[in-house]
Amino acid sequence: MNKHYGQIVEKVIRRDGYSISELARLMNVNRRSVYNWFNKKRLKTDIVFRIGGVLNYDFSTEFPELFRANEFGYLSDNAPVQMAHDEVQTEPTFDKQWKDKYIVLLEKYNELLTQSIQVNARH
């Protein structure tokens, strides 16, 4: 496909009246990064997904090739696949899943650390 991703994203942002400064703030990047994205012929899938999430805009019409899933429900570069509206996993739920996994991992690490300290104290 011979489309210019950056120009398409810019067109959507400007057409819908979004502020570049606000988009940059919400995405935790500087304005220059946003303008650099506009100049790129091909954007990374995760950037398109993040912009779509921040703007609450579905880019699947403009970029259907980015929304095809493999057998694991993810694209080749591991970006989450957009699902039907009632199937969409909300950001807080997604964040909570990672937070829960992190806490479990941290608890296991603390158990191992405690065991290691006890073993070293005996010797």
Question: What is the straight-line distance between the termini?
Answer: 66 Å
Molecular shape: elongated
Range of helix content:
55-70%
Radius of gyration: 20 Å
Just give the CATH class of the largest domain: Mainly Alpha
CATH architecture verdict of the largest domain: Orthogonal Bundle
Largest sheet: none
Sketch the topology as an H/E string, one letter per element: HHHHH
Set down the secondary structure blueprint:
Blueprint: H1 5-15, H2 20-27, H3 31-38, H4 45-55, H5 91-122
Helix pairs in contact: 2-3
Provide a descriptive summary of the structure in words.
- The protein is mostly helical.
- It folds into two domains: 1-83, 434 Repressor (Amino-terminal Domain) (Orthogonal Bundle); 89-123.
- Helix content is 57%, strand content 0%.
- The chain has helices at 5-15, 20-27, 31-38, 45-55, 91-122.
- Helix 2 packs across helix 3.
Features:
mainly alpha, 123 residues, 434 Repressor (Amino-terminal Domain)
In short:
The chain is an all-alpha fold. The chain has five helices and no strands.
